[in-house]
């Protein structure tokens, strides 16, 4: 009987630790970032491809200035978490965005504010993506190491 009680006590204690939060868990931070129980959340991943629009060079330069300004605006608003070009590839992918929105529809609305996308110089393919809710936290560090702005 004593052995049974010890066994059951061990099972209960072990079972309870399975529901314990990891050491260092910060509920306030997790909530502020919109994290689920796994520290994750939904985003939208955007793959930017070369479009069929082929305006004059001066127009392309102007559209890409607007594209970069739009990236800056969306980042300041907290809507754009990651942006960057891709190296030359056979799929005509030009860059990626990770948008801090939950749906492709929300992403589509934001993408329509980009002049290069509106004019067809870039085409956006959007996909739901599930990643770390802490992803936006790198942005202040990037600003601290950026010597030159685009």
UniProtKB/TrEMBL annotation:
Domain YCII-related: from-to ranges: 56-121
Family: Belongs to the YciI family.
Annotated InterPro entries: Dimeric_a/b-barrel, YCII
Keywords, comma-separated and alphabetical: Signal
Signal peptide: 1-20
Protein name, UniProt field: YCII-related domain-containing protein
Originating species: Flavihumibacter petaseus NBRC 106054
Domain of life of the organism encoding this protein: Bacteria
């Amino acid at each position: 009987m004593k052995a049974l009680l010890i066994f059951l006590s061990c099972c209960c204690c072990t079972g309870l630790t399975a529901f314990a939060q990891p050491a260092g868990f910060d509920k306030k931070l997790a909530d502020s970032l919109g994290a689920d129980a796994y520290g994750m959340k939904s985003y939208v991943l955007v793959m930017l491809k070369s479009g069929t629009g082929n305006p004059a060079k001066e127009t392309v330069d102007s559209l890409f200035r607007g594209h970069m300004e739009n990236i800056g605006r969306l980042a300041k608003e907290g809507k754009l978490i990651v942006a960057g070009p891709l190296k030359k590839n056979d799929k005509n992918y030009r860059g990626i965005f990770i948008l801090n929105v939950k749906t492709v529809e929300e992403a589509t609305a934001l993408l329509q504010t980009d002049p290069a996308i509106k004019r067809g110089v870039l085409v956006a393919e959007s996909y739901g993506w599930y990643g770390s809710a802490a992803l936006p936290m790198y942005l202040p560090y990037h600003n601290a190491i950026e010597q030159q702005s685009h």
